[in-house]
């Protein structure tokens, strides 16, 4: 359930070209509202993110939701990466919360240390967030994050997944999907782009640690994202949220299509939205009409080669991944398939 | 209170008396009993308001301390050897951010070949990181220096490494005077952080800076070490006033005044040396010693003053800059460069090689005749080394060096026995 400020200003909001219910059809509590003047703005304007950056959008909504849920008693530890770089270089900072960047691979351990300090000082009202991109999470930060889950430190870890190392020039990470072009998986040779059959599924790995709460979210559905962050803050112990954040620079997509691509990732089945508690799946976001993966892929130059003659098998393989997700997470609304 | 106690157990008590708020530890790469004891004490509720974190690696251990220290908690961890290297990125990060973490290093060798015994390779690998490095001579000093380290770190807002010889001190039982809580509380005030993560006063820590500020930040790290050169002796004096012991400080002299030859070393080996040097003095040889208690900051002026009248200095150290020579010797030569003093560099005790009175006396006697090669590897089996060099010349696939050496040690020893 989404908490809406008392001073909300109703806006007329008619979505077109999508299958999402329009704002006017929702009940009051669920309607989109314009930000109020007392919005926390944890991540302030003036930062250096690219146009259409999914990560900036995701981080702003996630951290603000966490601020509301904790009565502004929040500290964040950030891994090295786009989010760290575009929000800070001294003497400027876009963060209006206490924020620390230490290293690329240790955000989870730093956050765990902050949580321990708060506990030692009897300030358990102060809550802690660790955040990083997919590289800082699934690759170099994997050990520290797994250790944090193991100890069940009172930390929410947020991974902004844009499926490659964008800050350093778009290299492959273990979250890069099959066929995707990156600087280290170029579309050349017999299997152009990233190899199929590689990579990690961090939300499932997080679930395997049996931590209190795991969820996936996407920047096309900010209400759902805020809801999941709010819910995560109602738990103590380790929590993990992975937010799907399109990257126009790395994906070769139009900045204006970030939301569309994020929505299509979900509606094709490429990025399932679900929630899990204590290692058990407790909810999924259903898809009413499954979109073919082509609709999602054609908006991104990183997949351009899959439409070339001779690469049909890659397109098929991506469709199989989407179909398998739908099957595995039971994503289809009843009778809609 | 006097106790017959293992070095690690004594240090654990010193840490507990220092009122830490967060302790993180990884069990073995390798570790000592220090953190085992502290874990028990925290679990038993014997340390008030303290959290003990069991982490997945040494990198995680120091990273957790970075977080807890930045959040204003007095933070402690311990490590040695491979673990120290595994956390190295965080070592530089902690000093770069000026976080006053205290870390024990139970000095041990670094592989390959894997070797768990004592030398100073681990601490030496971080000598330029910005951490202060204090070396303890014995277990009493290990206890005392840890208590001083927290105050020093917090006054400077810089991290401090307390280096104590692995096994020789960490695992040795000796009589130690464990201080009272009241004494420690009098010496060590509560932690007042210079910068802190606080929702009531948000700030951003650890952000990027470019070429326009980096030199100044680095200079200030150097400046803090220069400041420490004044603070360390002052704290040692205050410590002595409360605890009644001379512990810590920059250097310590052992009949070095007026000695023609002065041995310079660090850590526990001075214990054996003192006996050897006393014997040599009885035989009419003018020889004394100076130990460096603070390696970082390097006490340049104090050493110049202590060594200015010496004819020669023999630097004995358990560390080597491969391709160059002794690390302590290099530092000392720089400090004494305008003095007409011959500095011999001796490297010994690597990977736990025993340092005996006999082999020290033989080496010192060569030293006073200026017959030591540069650098001199103490107690090395050159016949074994030469066999391996010849083997590598003769065969392309000559095999694993460490295994060959060990085989040859047996062969050579057997040949000598005949």
Taking pLDDT < 50 over at least 5 consecutive residues as the criterion, the unreliable ranges of chain B are none
Rough outline of chain A: globular
Mean pLDDT of chain A: 92
Largest interface: which pair?
A: A-B, 44 and 44 residues
Record field, number of beta strands of chain B: 16
Termini separation of chain A comes to: 27 Å
Count the E strands of chain A: 10
Taken in chain order, the helices and strands of chain A follow as EEHEHEHEHHEHEHEHHEEHH
Proper CATH architecture of chain A? 3-Layer(aba) Sandwich
Strand content of chain A: 5-15%
The total tally of domains of chain A equals 1
- Widest beta sheet: strand line-up of chain A: 4-3-5-6-8-7-9-10
Write a structural description.
The complex is a heterodimer of chains A (337) and B (418). Chain A is of the alpha/beta class. Chain A is built from 11 helices and 10 strands. Chain A has one domain: Rossmann fold. In chain A, the strands form 2 sheets. Chain A has an 8-stranded mixed β-sheet, sandwiched between helices. In chain A, strands 1-2 form a two-stranded antiparallel sheet. Chain B folds into 3 domains: 2-243, Thiamin diphosphate (ThDP)-binding fold, Pyr/PP domains (Rossmann fold, 3-Layer(aba) Sandwich); 251-377, Rossmann fold, CATH 3.40.50; 382-417, no CATH class. In chain B, strand 11, helix 10 and strand 12 form a beta-alpha-beta unit. Chain B is globular and about 75 Å long. The chains are: A alpha/beta (337), B alpha/beta (418). Chains A and B meet through strand 3, strand 4, helix 3 and helix 5 of A and strand 3, helix 3, helix 5 and strand 9 of B. Strand 4 of chain A pairs parallel with strand 9 of chain B.
């Amino acid at each position: 359930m989404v908490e809406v400020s008392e001073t909300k200003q109703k806006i007329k909001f008619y979505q077109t070209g999508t299958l999402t219910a329009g704002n006017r059809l929702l009940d009051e509590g669920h309607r989109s509202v314009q930000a109020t003047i007392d919005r926390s703005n944890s991540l302030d304007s003036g930062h250096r993110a690219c146009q259409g950056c999914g990560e900036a959008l995701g981080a702003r909504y996630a951290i603000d939701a966490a601020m509301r849920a904790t009565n502004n008693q929040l500290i964040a530890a950030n891994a090295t990466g786009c989010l760290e770089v575009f929000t800070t270089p001294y003497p400027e900072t876009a963060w209006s919360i206490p924020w620390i960047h230490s290293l690329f691979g240790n955000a989870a351990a730093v956050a765990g240390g902050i949580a321990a300090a708060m506990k030692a000082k009897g300030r358990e009202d102060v809550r802690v967030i660790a955040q990083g991109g997919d590289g800082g999470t699934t690759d170099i930060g994997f050990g520290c994050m797994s250790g944090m889950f193991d100890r069940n430190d009172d930390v929410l870890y947020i991974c902004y997944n844009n499926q490659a190392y964008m800050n350093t020039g778009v290299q492959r990470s273990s979250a890069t999907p099959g066929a995707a072009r990156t600087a280290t998986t170029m579309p050349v040779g017999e299997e152009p782009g990233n190899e199929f059959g590689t990579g990690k599924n961090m939300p499932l790995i997080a679930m395997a640690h049996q931590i209190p709460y795991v969820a996936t979210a996407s920047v096309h559905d900010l209400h759902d994202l805020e809801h999941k962050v709010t819910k995560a803050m109602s738990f103590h112990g380790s929590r993990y949220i992975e937010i799907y954040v399109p990257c126009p620079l790395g994906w070769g997509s139009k900045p204006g299509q970030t939301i569309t691509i994020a929505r299509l990732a979900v509606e094709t089945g490429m990025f399932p939205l679900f929630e899990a508690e204590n290692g058990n799946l407790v909810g999924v976001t259903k898809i009413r009409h499954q979109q073919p993966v082509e609709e999602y892929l054609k908006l991104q130059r990183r997949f351009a080669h899959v439409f070339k003659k001779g690469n049909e098998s890659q397109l098929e393989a991506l469709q199989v991944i989407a179909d398998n997700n739908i099957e595995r997470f039971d994503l289809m609304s009843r009778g809609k398939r | 209170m006097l106790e017959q106690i293992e070095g690690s157990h004594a240090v654990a008590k010193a840490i507990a008396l220092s009122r830490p708020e967060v302790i993180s530890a990884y069990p073995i790469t390798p570790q000592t009993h220090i953190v085992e004891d502290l874990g028990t004490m925290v679990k038993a509720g014997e340390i008030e308001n303290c959290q003990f974190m069991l982490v997945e690696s040494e990198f995680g251990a120091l990273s957790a301390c970075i977080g807890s220290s930045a959040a204003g908690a007095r933070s402690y961890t311990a490590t040695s050897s491979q673990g120290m290297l595994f956390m190295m990125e965080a070592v530089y990060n902690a000093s770069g951010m000026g976080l006053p973490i205290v870390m024990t290093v139970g000095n041990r060798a670094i592989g390959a070949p894997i070797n768990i015994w004592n030398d100073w390779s681990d601490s030496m690998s971080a000598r330029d990181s910005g951490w202060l490095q204090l070396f303890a001579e014995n277990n009493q000093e290990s206890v005392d220096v840890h208590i001083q380290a927290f105050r020093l770190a917090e006054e400077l807002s810089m991290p401090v490494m307390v280096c104590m010889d692995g096994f020789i001190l960490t695992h040795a039982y000796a009589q130690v005077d464990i201080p009272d809580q009241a004494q420690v509380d009098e010496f060590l005030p509560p932690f007042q952080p210079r910068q802190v993560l606080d929702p009531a006063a948000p700030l951003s820590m650890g952000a990027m800076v470019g070429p326009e500020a980096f030199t100044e930040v680095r200079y200030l790290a150097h400046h803090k070490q220069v400041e420490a050169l004044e603070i360390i002796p002052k704290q040692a004096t205050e410590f002595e006033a409360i605890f009644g012991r001379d512990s810590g400080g920059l250097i310590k002299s052992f009949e070095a005044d007026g000695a023609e030859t002065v041995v310079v070393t660090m850590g526990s080996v001075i214990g054996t040396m003192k006996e050897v040097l006393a014997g040599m003095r009885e035989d009419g040889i003018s020889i004394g010693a100076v130990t460096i208690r603070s390696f970082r900051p390097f006490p340049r002026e104090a050493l110049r003053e202590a060594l200015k009248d010496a004819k020669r200095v023999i630097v004995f150290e358990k560390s080597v800059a491969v391709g160059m020579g002794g690390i302590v010797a290099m530092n000392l030569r720089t400090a004494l460069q305008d003095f007409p003093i011959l500095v011999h560099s001796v490297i010994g005790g690597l990977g736990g090689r025993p340092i005996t009175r006999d082999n020290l006396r033989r080496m010192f006697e060569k030293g006073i005749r200026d017959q030591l090669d540069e650098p001199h590897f103490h107690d090395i089996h050159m016949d074994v080394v030469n066999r391996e060099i010849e083997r590598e010349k003769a065969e392309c696939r000559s095999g694993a060096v460490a295994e060959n050496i060990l085989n040859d040690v047996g062969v050579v020893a057997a040949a000598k026995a005949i």
